[in-house]
Amino acid sequence: MSQSTFLDMPVLPPGVTRFWLIRHALVEQNARLTLYGSLDVPLCPDTLVAQAPMYEALARRLPRDARWIVTPLSRTHRTAQAIQEAGYGAADWTVEPGFIEQSMGELHGLEYDTLHRHLRLPPEPFWPINAAEAPAGGESMEQVCGRVAETLDRLADAHDGHDIVAITHGGTIRAACAHALGISAAASLRLSVQNLSVTILERHPAGWRVVTINELPGI
């Protein structure tokens, strides 16, 4: 059996909830040319085939008795399906709106090279808009951090002593890290969270613990 790059995870002690946060697979090429945020865009079919070894590595590594969560967007459903079909096996999942990607409101669908004309604040170095900017009809990253923090705490309470596999989004995972680390929304946007990477967070009685961020399966 091939070796995984992931850390061997101990059995959960009482009072601990462990989250396996996986960013969905790469979306199709045309969508990547625009700011798609919380729009429901499809995955790239060629990448789904080319990255088969990564799905297989995820299927081997994820805990067998985990509770599965996806967001309302189909790209998380398709990613979850691909992991399960790669060897994990069928598992029911729950749709969690609290883990959806940042809504860009009226900025949705704009090409990146024209985005600057519509912004009030300078963008972050590694994110298309400022952490404090809430586009019309959308939400700021600061608001996303609040939403995700509430969702994490609620799920940790509801699933005490269990592993949770959550197929979600890059902004969501950065917001989750902000909550666990106690850092600002702007600081969290400096974290790299690649497609199909795994970030593992644990909620202990003493507080949150970050086990790993942006681990890539099978590499």
From TrEMBL:
<dbReference type="InterPro" id="IPR050275">
    <property type="entry name" value="PGM_Phosphatase"/>
</dbReference>
<dbReference type="InterPro" id="IPR029033">
    <property type="entry name" value="His_PPase_superfam"/>
</dbReference>
<dbReference type="Pfam" id="PF00300">
    <property type="entry name" value="His_Phos_1"/>
</dbReference>
<protein>
    <submittedName>
        <fullName>Histidine phosphatase family protein</fullName>
    </submittedName>
</protein>
<dbReference type="InterPro" id="IPR013078">
    <property type="entry name" value="His_Pase_superF_clade-1"/>
</dbReference>
